[in-house]
Write a structure and sequence with these properties.
mainly beta; five-stranded mixed beta sheet; about 15% helix
């Protein structure tokens, strides 16, 4: 939904390091079928990947990776409630929590 000029300067994906753990960020994770396997291969050096686009919350551990979608705190679309995600990082672990608003 961003302006073309903004899209042109933003990376298609980004990786951040928090507490010594790598977390991948991507807006659109692609089709639902096979999504977790694709993300695990695409972010093989990460412990979690957070994506958006669908506004459908997801909190799933797949192979080495947490696959996470916060849903949306503002535009729930087809979801029954507004949601967001809190990640706790410490002790070499990532603990995700889906928060219903």
């Amino acid at each position: 939904m961003d302006e073309p000029a903004l899209k042109a300067v933003l990376p298609r994906q980004h990786v951040v390091e928090v507490g010594g753990l790598r977390i991948g960020l991507v807006h659109d994770a692609g089709p639902r079928v096979g999504r977790e396997a694709r993300l695990a291969a695409r972010f093989e050096d990460c412990r979690a990947v957070v994506y958006g686009h669908t506004h459908v919350p997801q909190l799933e551990h797949f192979q080495h990776l947490w696959v996470l979608n916060p849903g949306s705190p503002t535009d729930r679309r087809s979801q029954p409630v507004h949601t967001m995600l809190v990640l706790k990082v410490g002790g070499g672990r990532i603990t995700p929590e889906l928060v219903t608003l």
